[in-house]
Structure formats: C-alpha cells, structure tokens
Amino acid sequence: QIMIARRDGEGKEGEVSATFHAMMYFEIGLAVALFCFMYFGGYYFFSLFANSDVIFYKSLEYLEYRSFGVFFSFTGLAIISFYTGIARTTFIMIDALLLMVVNLILNYALIFGHFGFPEMGIAGAGLASTISEGVALIAFVIYVIFDKKLKKYNLFKFPKINFDLIKTQQKLSAPVVAQAVVGFGSWFVFFGIIENLGERALAITNLGRMVYLALSIPTWGFASAANTLVSNLIGQDKRSWVLPIIWKTSKLCLLVTMILTIPVICFPEQILYPILGSEDMSLITEAKPIFYMVAGILAMFSIGGVFFNGLAGTGATFFGLKIQVLGVIFYLVYIYAVVNFTSLGLEWAWASEIFYWILILGLTYWYLRSKSWYLLKV
Question: What pLDDT, on a 0 to 100 scale, did the predictor assign at position 197?
Fold first, then answer.
C-alpha cells in the first residue's frame, strides 16, 4: 500500500502495476504455503494443543473446508491494498458488506441445514466463510475488469516474477508485521497480568476490551487513509504537506470517534443490553469506570494511531518498530507494577493504554518534525 501510493503520487503507472503484481505473486505463494501447512499439517499442529478428542476432530473438520479460503482472502487483500494505495476505497466497503451478508446467510444455511442445504455443523461454518470470500473476490475482479480508470495500470498484463521488488516489499513490510506481533503480544500479557486481580476484574476487562475494539474501528480506517495520503504526497514531492495532512486526519478521526464513543460511555446499559442480556447488567455497572478510561484511551489512540500510521507512510517502518517496542516495554512494566505492587486497582491498570499512546504520539511527532524521513527511499 505504501509503495503503490508512492508510485501513484510520482505518476509512474507502470511501477504501480509492477508493485501490485509483485505483491500478488507473493500473496499467492504465501497462500500455497499456508494451505499446505493447514491441510497436511493441521492434524499434527492441533494434536499439540487439543486435549479433548471432540475439540481435536471438530477443529480438523472445520479446517478441512476453511483452509481453501486463504487463496481467496490473500488475493483479495492484494487487490484491497492496491485500491487503498491509489486512494479509491468505496468499493472495498461495498465488497466487505457483500462478504458479510453472504457469510451470514450461508452460515445459517450450512450449519443448521436450512434452505435445502445439508446440516454440516462446524464444517458448514468453514465452508460458508470460504465460499463468501470466493464470492467477494469474484465481485472485486468483475469490478476491476469494468473499472475504466484502471486501464492505465494494465493490471491484467502479468509480467515475470520480480524477486528484487518482492525483496524490497518484504524489507519495508517486515517491521510492520513485527509491530503487529509486538502489539497483540502485549495484549495477551496484559490480560495475563489482570487475571491476578481476580475473575471479576478479568470479566470487566474483557467487556472493556470488546467496547474498545468496536469503537476503535474508525481509527483504523483513518489511520490507513493517513498512510496512503502521506506516501502519495511524498511521491508528489510535497513533503511540507505531510504534517498538516496528518493533523487534519487525526482531528477528523477524533471527532468521529468521540461522536460514536460518548453515547456508549454515557448510556452503556441501554446500548450494551441487547448484546449482553439482563444477567450481565451488574457487570456493565461495575465496568463504568473502565468505560470512562476507554474514552480517554480512544481519544489518544485516534490521534496517536493516525500519526503512527502516517509515520509508516514515510517508509520509516523500522523506526516505527523501535518506537513500538519501547512503548510496549514501558506499558508492560507499568501494568506489572500497578497490579503487583500497588492498590490502585483496575482503572489505573487500564490507564497504561493512555500513557502508551502519549509516548507513541510524542516520539512519532518528534521524528516527523525532525525531517529525517525526507531522505528515505521506498
């Protein structure tokens, strides 16, 4: 996405196409590798973790149909990255809705045997997801074929595999993958530490996490947009516009996030009741202090997340990884100290997210102001 946006900003349609094809070849190769691992190695993999025979064989039953989905989803991700890179995301939303609707209908039909379909149980869930991804990919390919604005890119003229370009993509993307591993890994450790506060604290934290993840969706969208905009502007040699466009995107992201967040925080019983049911009303009441903390976290994340992805758009993905590692170390040390050596409680443990994003935002802003990224090549 970063490379496509950069080449598009430079007006180099041929290199946009070359970048897309290199990415497509890599995604297909990765899909083949993961399919072989799941289809032929799933038995041995699950045998390491599943103690129950029922869970073991149900997992294999699900994977037998679900493993084919990697070919559709990985190819679809390549196309999504292309359209995001050229800043044309409307059909991505339409295609995502199509995938969701088809998946819901097929899950209902194949799991329980409705509409004349066989009752397949959990295997039906795997098959439904695979088919829905296939339908979404077909719809996207049809859209690409009839999209007149893409003719200049010659996407259906497949060149030979460019291993040097694939290598360049991996060099740029490896730190981003590592960032995801570090980020998600810190969440697992966070919940492990929170467990020391007791089962009720863990239940409240799980509820807080659900609300946080749902309300953070707009930030991921704006952050992805910032990534593309920054790389495209650099491609146009408009580096002085980078910080202003990130600021504008982060302010808009904050506004949209707060519009969605404030009603949930102020009226959690009414909004969360349909999801949790009356038996969990006491849990919602006890989680209110966490919800207020979540509002603060989302405010910082909506700004920090956009800036951090804007940093990635400059091509400084390795520096972004160093920032995140430093932030996660601070984050985990803080949580461990609060939970094990103080009586501050769950709210202050959650406050670690606010301090984490303040640190990430500060370091990212400092780097962008330093203009060290002006000389980076993508």
Answer: 76
Asked if 46 and 59 count as a contact pair (C-beta separation under 8 A), the reply is: yes
Q: Are 239 and 6 in contact (CB under 8 A)?
A: no
- Dihedral, CA of residue 211, residue 321, residue 23 and residue 154, to nearest 10: 90
**Cβ 101 vs Cβ 84: under 8 Å:** no
Identity of the residue numbered 22? A
pLDDT score recorded for residue 273: 72
Q: Which residue has the tokens 């940093």?
A: 311
Is 320 within 8 Å of 223 (Cβ atoms)? no
Q: What average pLDDT does this structure show over 183-202? A: 80
* Three-state secondary structure readout of the chain: CHHHHHHHHCCCHHHHHHHHHHHHHHHHHHHHHHHHHHHHHHHHHHHCCCCCHHHHHHHHHHHHHHCCHHHHHHHHHHHHHHHHHCCCCHHHHHHHHHHHHHHHHHHHHHHHCCCCCCCCCHHHHHHHHHHHHHHHHHHHHHHHHHCHHHHHHCCCCCCCCCHHHHHHHHHHHHHHHHHHHHHHHHHHHHHHHHHHHCHHHHHHHHHHHHHHHHHCHHHHHHHHHHHHHHHHHHHCCCHHHHHHHHHHHHHHHHHHHHHHHHHHHHCHHHHHHHHHCHHHHHHHHHHHHHHHHHHHHHHHHHHHHHHHHHHHHCCCHHHHHHHHHHHHHHHHHHHHHHHHHCCCCHHHHHHHHHHHHHHHHHHHHHHHHHCHHHHCCC
Q: Which two tokens stand for residue 270?
A: 């009414």
Yes or no: say if 352 and 336 are a contact pair by the CB < 8 Å rule: no
Answer whether 0.85 is exceeded by the pTM.
Answer: yes
By residue count, the chain amounts to 378
Which residue matches tokens 């103080």?
342
